[in-house]
Amino acid sequence: MSGLSDDAKELLRKPYFAWATTVRPDGSLHSTVVWADVDGDDVIFNTAIGRAKERHLRQNPRVSISVLDPNDAFHAVSVSGEARLEEEGADAVIDGLAKKYLGVDTYPYRQSGEQRITVRIPAEKVIYSPGG
Fold it and tell me: Would you tell me how many other CB atoms lie within 10 Å of the CB of residue 43?
């Protein structure tokens, strides 16, 4: 199934941790916990230039991101697609994610000299489970 339903978007808007999976150069998978959100029909997360996720996505844009409702192990969404990397506006995105997850206006873990990048995932393949 492609596209995000309203219910899937609602789950993605909650401050639940997500995990993103990228493909390493050797073809093995790399999964990390990320903050995520939905923007229109895309799922977004943010990282810093030079980190593994960013390097992997530059070589192979295939990515999957999933969220599991911590209150219902059968309520989940998984989105797969080809990521687009966006430098413009990335600082505002990480600040928005910090507001969502920490309740603060500015991302407090910014490193000196760090350049942020937003990963945008079109919902090419979606698996949504409404829970029980």
Answer: 32
Tokens encoding 80: 């797969």
Report how far apart, in Å, the C-alpha atoms of 70 and of each of 47, 97, 103 are: 23, 19, 19
Quote the pLDDT of residue 26: 97
| Inter-residue contact 99 to 91 (CB < 8 Å) | no
Our CA angle for 76, 20, 52, nearest 5°, is 170
Q: Domain total for the chain? A: 1
Indicate if the alpha-carbon torsion angle 31, 9, 100, 14 is positive or negative.
Answer: negative
The whole domain housing 121 covers: 6-130
Is residue 1 one of the residues assigned to a domain?
Answer: no
Q: What would the pLDDT profile of 48-84 be if each residue is shown by its tens digit?
A: 999 999 999 999 999 999 999 999 999 999 999 999 9
Cβ contacts of 66 within 8 Å, gap of 6 or more: 18, 19, 21, 76, 77, 78, 79
Which pair of tokens denotes residue 49? 């230039």
| Residue position matching structure tokens 């995105």 | 93
Beta bridge partners of 128: 77
Instruction: Please give the single-letter amino acid code of residue 113.
Output: G
Q: Is residue 101 part of a domain?
A: yes
